[in-house]
Design goal:
It contains nine helices and five strands. Helix 1 runs antiparallel to helix 5 and helix 6 packs across helix 8. The chain is elongated, with a radius of gyration of 21 Å. By secondary structure, the chain is of the alpha+beta class. A hairpin with a 7-residue loop joins strand 4 and strand 5. A five-stranded antiparallel β-sheet has the order 2-1-5-4-3, sandwiched between helices. The model has no long low-confidence stretch (mean pLDDT 90). The two termini are 31 Å apart.
């Protein structure tokens, strides 16, 4: 199943929209998708609900799934009540995490206006978020030499300078950069550097 199909199916299950954050690092996700109605997004943003939103707090602190109605965290700013007034009456939160010291988290918050999500639908959403999380995982096959070459180019060094600094030929540097591009699925050197940085490799 392709990513667009998964996201289309998420949208069909979450008929009031969803928020998806993939590979959240220190502060920002590598990719973010918001399909909630613009009026709710504007209201949520204007009132700076994120830090007090019990759904977001649950997803940052836990792994697995939970229906919104089961979240027992304080909601002093009544984010959940206000969400219901925008048609976000029923929902489920999904969160997954790499279990290592530098691990990243991906999560999704999915809403319906008409009924609770079934157990089967919750499992589907959990499976899709988990798959997207794994699909966005950094490649593990980049060599130290390839990462170093990317770092040096990112820092503004020319190929001749990189080669001199590393004690190799320009051809060797070009090959390392080409290998890195292929492993990162990038079409250009700039895209490879951007992706590597996004993965926290640089």
């Amino acid at each position: 199943m392709t990513v667009p199909d998964e996201r289309r199916l998420m949208g069909e299950l979450a008929n009031s929209g969803y928020y998806l954050a993939l590979r959240v690092g220190f502060a920002f996700p590598m990719e973010e998708v918001i399909t909630f109605q613009p009026e709710w997004v504007e209201h949520y943003t204007r009132h700076r609900f994120m830090l007090s939103d019990p759904i977001i707090r649950w997803m940052y602190a836990n792994s697995g799934t939970i229906r919104w109605s089961e979240i027992a965290l304080d909601d002093p700013r009544e984010v959940m009540r206000q969400a219901r007034s925008f048609g976000l009456r029923f929902g489920v939160a999904v969160s997954c995490f790499d279990n290592d010291p530098g691990g990243q988290r991906s999560f999704g918050s999915f809403a319906r206006s008409d009924r609770e999500f079934s157990n089967a639908e919750v499992r589907q959403l959990e499976g899709w978020v988990g798959k997207l999380h794994r699909d966005k995982a950094p490649p593990t096959n980049l060599t130290g030499a390839e990462i170093t070459a990317l770092q040096m180019v990112r820092d503004g060094m020319r190929l001749k300078q990189v080669a001199h600094e590393l004690g190799v030929t320009e051809g060797a540097v070009k090959q390392r950069l080409k290998n890195a591009r292929v492993k990162l699925g990038a079409k250009t050197g700039a895209e490879a550097i951007s992706r590597a940085a996004g993965f926290g490799l640089l």
